Amino acid sequence: MPTKESDEAEVRLGSRFHRLFGATLVSSIGTGMHAAALPLLALQATSSPLALSAVVMAAEIPWVLLSLHAGVVVDRLDRRRVMVWADLARFAVLVGLAALILTAQVNLVWLVVAAFLLGVGQVFFDIAAQSAIPDFVSRDPRNLATANGRIVAAESNGEDFVGPPAGSALFGVWNFLPFAGNALSFAASGLLILSIRTDAKPEKTSEAPRKSVRREIAEGIRWLFGNRTLRALATVSCLGNVAATAQFAMLALLAKEVLGLPDFGFGLLLTATAVGATAGGLTAAAASRRFGPGTVMLVGKAGVGAAILVLGLVANSWVAAAMMMVTGALMTAEKVVVSTLRQQMVPDELLGRVLSSSRLVVMIGGPIGAAIGGVLATVFAVQVSYVAAGVFLILVALAFCPVLNNRALASATEQSAG
């Protein structure tokens, strides 16, 4: 039964946020659809594993190449317009790809180009959407935590829970359908964002010459690493990504060799993660109010470590599904807390650049974790990579207790507000 407090939080979020939420959900479903359908289309064009990996890598490379520049664009321009243009650009790419499919002209080169351009659009949309949340709700921690939790839940549902199965099912009916549906999802998202009314604000004008892109990027990086708390948040997220990527990189192997699951069982483990992520996103705000953001983050980090450790020690599919649900919930709750703290501490005019700098730091942990997980699984056994990742995360949580406990975070946010 909803409480009076939750009802008031709902009212304070307002219709503008709900349209942003709707656009994020629709856009995320589209992203999940093409994330599943693009590799399937690549396999129709070629059976080469290298070709398949090229398509997947093309979608991820934009985060490394363009995230810092996207932060500058998001801080310079109206964030609503950035999201609309990102959706329109992805709509155009998918219309072109659908036309190639209909005319039987699609090939690996076009697929790599399409995956890259769709990845570029996702970079700009995601950074703009996350930076725009304080524009549509007040910077009250309760409102920000609730808004971030719902946005993260929308992303998890769309990209991991609804989008991939829908994309795969439509592809099985006709390979044209997921891409046509995906194009419509981005068009709908763009229209929803375009309908959001913004407060009348004076244009950002200054007699001083505009700084160069390089200087603005450097300013965001300096702000991130010059703030002790933000630096710790980025570092602990990066280290968490090392363990999380090591876990997910070896999950298919664990499912088949250790748990003895058929191919669809691997998909069910991913579904369990998405279910947990949805629950974590929706309950993170309440947990943060009840226990404090530091407790949610540190206990969450240690809890993920314990769940990964259990995955390496217990060869039972039901236990594995439960642990995947736990990791999804706790990792999402951590993400909500980090996003809320960042939005409270960073000035609005720097939020896009600090966010993009943080994302880049976090992403560094991905390939490192995948490589370490692969080496440990090859030299020893796949379970060893899980045991190592779990113990590592527990130690990370203990190491960052002095910097990221409730008292330290409260002091840091008060200083930023002052």
Automatic annotation (TrEMBL):
| Extent of the signal sequence | none
Q: Which CDD domains match?
A: MFS_MefA_like
Q: How does it sit in the membrane?
A: Multi-pass membrane protein
Superkingdom is: Bacteria
Where is this gene product found?
Cell membrane
List where the protein spans the membrane: 20-43, 49-70, 232-254, 266-287, 294-312, 318-338, 359-380, 386-404
**Keyword Transferase (UniProt):** no
All copies of domain Major facilitator superfamily (MFS) profile, residue ranges: 16-414
Question: SUPFAM superfamilies in the record, alphabetically?
Answer: MFS general substrate transporter (SSF103473)
Cited Pfam families = MFS_3
Q: Which UniProt keywords apply?
A: Cell membrane, Membrane, Transmembrane, Transmembrane helix, Transport
User: Where does this chain mainly localize?
Assistant: membrane
Recorded hits in PANTHER family, A to Z, give:
INTEGRAL MEMBRANE EFFLUX PROTEIN-RELATED, MAJOR FACILITATOR SUPERFAMILY ASSOCIATED DOMAIN-CONTAINING PROTEIN
Q: Per its record, how is this protein called by name? A: MFS transporter
